[in-house]
Specification:
Number of strands: 0
Order of helices and strands: HHHHHHHH
Largest sheet: none
Shape: elongated
Strand content: under 5%
CATH topology of the largest domain: Arc Repressor Mutant, subunit A
Oligomer: single chain
CATH architecture of the largest domain: Orthogonal Bundle
């Protein structure tokens, strides 16, 4: 199981965490495994956890590229960067509808995955994704308008 996680994630510590989480969830949920299906169940559980981690990595990378491209940060003076951060904070406060502001806060400030945000807000994961995309579009427009 660890080997599968390591192949998929290319990160030893994260692979160990995934395997640990799978066993912890088995114990917490008191799942009884049949001997003939235990191995495939465990491997599928590890694979699914790894795919979730990979998906979340991609979303975070996209969001970071979307908001602050690396070359912009390198060329920006500290004063301009501070101004952009303040504009970003103001833009977050002005997000509409208000659920966009909640989604941004829960996802980036608290680090919650879409599933947990959806459960907290009582909506689907797809709705959370759409609100996040809407919020990021609004923030991009806010940053573009402050550049001028």
């Amino acid at each position: 199981m660890y080997r599968l996680a390591s192949i998929l994630l290319h990160d030893d510590d994260e692979s160990k965490d995934i395997v640990h989480d799978v066993f912890a969830r088995l114990l917490a949920d008191q799942v009884e495994l049949r001997e003939e299906s235990a191995q495939s169940y465990l491997l599928l559980s590890v694979r699914n956890r790894c795919l979730n981690v990979i998906r979340n990595r991609k979303i975070h990378e996209q969001a970071q590229r979307y908001l602050l491209p690396a070359e912009v940060v390198e060329q920006t003076s500290p004063e301009d960067l501070e101004r952009e951060i303040e504009a970003l904070k103001a833009g977050i406060n002005d997000l509409f509808p208000p659920i966009c502001r909640k989604v941004i806060h829960l996802h980036f400030a608290e680090g919650l995955p879409f599933r947990e945000i959806a459960e907290r807000l009582g909506v689907s994961e797809t709705t959370i994704y759409k609100h996040l995309r809407n919020a990021l579009d609004q923030l991009r427009q806010t940053l573009k308008s402050t550049e001028r």
